[in-house]
Amino acid sequence: MTVSLRRPTERERENNCERERRRRMVTARIFAGLRAHGNYCLPKHADQNEVLKALCEEAGWHVEEDGTVYRKTSIEGPSNTNCNNLYPDCYAETRKETEEDELYVSKIELAGYEVMYEKI
């Protein structure tokens, strides 16, 4: 095990602070754009995990609190599908699963991995 006794110089610390400030600024702009143009119901200080959850919800996947992801079995309505179950203040209409909405599950073996996909 090696221990480094090197400390960053004052200039390196300033550069790190500036780099982090720019990173936060870009992230804030991305979140503002998603709120304004993508109809995402994100809190004011959203982090990357909340954005990923919103994108998964929009794509038809459900994300549990512990990070478990699985395909939704009901079909969502066209408006604000990404807000369902993420934030209680957001309202989105969902269409219940009916007889004509059947769920097909198939398995594919790809390079030694078993992949499951659903077709709605």
UniProtKB/TrEMBL annotation:
UniProt keyword list: Brassinosteroid signaling pathway, DNA-binding, Growth regulation, Transcription, Transcription regulation
GO CC, alphabetical: nucleus
Signal peptide limits: none
GO biological process per UniProt: brassinosteroid mediated signaling pathway; DNA-templated transcription
Keyword Transcription regulation: yes
Location relative to the cell: Nucleus
Domain of life of the source: Eukaryota
Domain BES1/BZR1 plant transcription factor N-terminal: 5-75
Family annotation (Pfam families): BES1_N
GO molecular function, a single term: DNA-binding transcription factor activity
Biological role stated in the UniProt entry: Functions in brassinosteroid signaling. May function as transcriptional repressor.
Protein family per UniProt: Belongs to the BZR/LAT61 family.
Protein name (record): Protein BZR1 homolog
Organismal lineage: Eukaryota, Viridiplantae, Streptophyta, Embryophyta, Tracheophyta
